[in-house]
Design goal:
- With 446 residues, this protein is an alpha+beta fold.
- It has twelve helices and 15 strands.
- α7 crosses α8 and α8 crosses α12.
- It is globular.
- The N and C termini lie far apart (55 Å).
Length: 446
């Protein structure tokens, strides 16, 4: 794979990172472990498959032009065993121990100068019926959907399908390096339209910024640089039952469940419910099914006020559905949530020197990230070991202490909750509140 410039949004993610705010996303995949499974062999299989994925052999290098830019380039000294490691966990309940260690590993930034990803095979006692794989990828390398597309190459079903003969690409038509008049005019028109959209998004961002920040809660605590992970698993059929009764989409139901869980959790902690609704940033992929995937991040987002002051679960869900319908009517390229679109219009030098300011600005736009990452619907396995569950993990923006990611798989919706370890030490309880809130929604709509 030849060198290619980082897209503006990828460059922004690269420069937003600091030791206390690593900008990688991840997933904790838990597999069934038959008695004769050799986890050392699993690790070697994982390493071989990861090494065969061209994107995972690329690292970020600075470039002279454009000024402030960077490019993906093949790592000359690539050694997959620097990236794929095995870790034997202390004895104890495997799920609890694996989750705790995954949280600690998520707090460690990836080494810059190397391809920005890592995988860990987590094993416990020989008699344990499970093992896990923790995957970490820098957000500059992939957004959620792109990470799924890259990471899927480690599974038996995708790796085996790609091992056959591949059709060679046809010859590329010759093209002049100098654009013709029509192309110049088209480029100019496109650039003007992009700038106009950027101005509109920028104005929306300013209007949506808040000076009355959500004070007095765990989410306003200073970053400790530590991470704590909690997981939850909801019955996908229960989500569909609520959707059929209330209308809207399954994602509306899940967002309403998150709002109710936050309310329940805050009241249990003795916190006063905020006067202004906490705001969620809900990422929206701009990729199109069947369209070219590309290597760059393709993201926008919606802003959603979470109705935590509303006591009635059905009313909370209605409020979420109404807000999301309004967001969808406006579209993912408009409004303050489309701040990622604005980032796409800025020059590389602005990302390099404006990263600190941009990172701090996230706090005045939203309080918590809530993202839904789709997974393949087919059953997956690694080395013949079936995938039991997969918990996605999103990075924490500067000024935030909680990020919520969810993925449907195998008849369940699995949640990964990444929190600042000091600000939200009881994030496990929030995970339990998700299940309780969905049960409350079912009961209220029965």
């Amino acid at each position: 794979m030849s060198s290619e410039l980082l897209a503006p949004l990828d460059l922004a993610f690269w420069h937003l990172e600091s030791d206390a705010h690593p900008m990688h996303l991840g997933a904790l995949a838990v597999f069934h472990r038959p008695k004769d499974t050799d986890c050392g062999e699993i690790a070697e299989l994982l390493a071989a498959r990861a090494a065969a994925i061209p994107r995972l052999r690329m690292c970020v290098r600075s470039v002279w032009l454009p000024v402030g830019g960077a490019a993906w380039a093949a790592a000359d000294d690539f050694d997959v065993h620097r990236h794929v490691r095995t870790r034997r966990l202390p004895y104890g309940d495997f799920a609890e121990v694996a989750t705790r260690h995954a949280g600690e590993l998520m707090g460690r930034p990836l080494k810059r100068g190397r391809p920005p990803w890592e995988m860990y095979v987590l094993t416990g006692r020989p008699e344990d019926e499970s093992f896990a794989v923790l995957v970490k990828m820098h957000h500059a390398l992939a957004d959620g959907m792109r990470a799924v597309a890259i990471g899927a190459g480690i599974f038996d079903e995708i790796a085996d399908a790609g091992s056959g003969a591949r059709r060679r690409p046809g010859p590329v038509p010759s093209r002049s390096r100098l654009p013709g008049p029509r192309r110049v005019a088209g480029m100019a028109k496109g650039r003007i339209e992009e700038l106009g959209r950027a101005v509109g998004v920028g104005a929306s961002v300013v209007r949506a910024s808040r000076l009355d920040l959500w004070e007095g809660t765990a989410f306003t605590a200073d970053s400790s640089g530590t991470r704590r992970l909690a997981t939850a698993s909801l019955d996908a059929e229960d989500v569909q039952r609520v959707r059929r009764a209330a209308g809207g989409t399954a994602n509306d139901v899940l967002l309403g469940t998150v709002a109710g869980a936050l309310r329940r959790w805050m009241l249990e902690r003795g916190e006063e419910l905020p006067g202004a609704a906490p705001r969620a940033l809900v990422p929206v992929s701009r990729r199109r099914p069947g369209g070219p995937s590309g290597s760059a991040n393709r993201l926008s987002a919606y802003l959603l006020d979470l109705p935590v002051r509303e006591a009635d679960p059905a009313a909370r869900l209605t409020a979420v559905r109404t807000s999301m319908d309004r967001n969808k009517a406006a579209g993912p390229l408009r409004g303050a949530g489309a701040v990622a679109v604005l980032a796409d219009q800025l020059p590389p030098l602005a990302h390099r020197f404006g990263a600190a300011l941009a990172g701090s600005a996230a706090r005045v736009l939203f309080d918590v990230l809530v993202t839904n990452v789709p997974l393949p619907r087919s059953e997956l396995s690694l080395g013949g070991c079936p995938l039991r569950s997969l918990y996605p993990m999103a990075p924490l923006a500067r000024g935030q202490s909680l990020a919520v990611a969810m993925s449907p798989y195998g008849g369940r919706v699995q949640f990964g909750l990444v929190a600042d370890g000091k600000a939200v030490p009881d994030v496990e309880r929030l995970g339990q509140c998700l299940d309780e809130e969905l049960a409350e929604l079912r009961k209220g709509l029965a």
